[in-house]
Specification:
With about 50 residues, the protein is an all-alpha fold. The protein is about 30% helix and about 0% strand. The longest helix has 10 residues.
Length: about 50
């Protein structure tokens, strides 16, 4: 529960974990994908979905 006003100018930077996750989970997209209005892809089921 938040009891105070949130300040958007908190000091700090992106953590090493975020940088690693971003590098591991980011892929390059080719121009054909960017110029195409629709892209089909296979997305695995979420854990817990039946």
């Amino acid at each position: 529960m938040l009891i105070g006003t949130r300040n958007p100018d908190l000091p700090g930077d992106v953590t090493e974990g975020i940088v690693k996750w971003r590098n591991d989970m980011t892929i390059m997209l080719g121009p054909g994908v960017l110029n195409n209005a629709t892209v089909s892809m296979n997305v695995p089921k979420r854990a817990g979905d039946q």
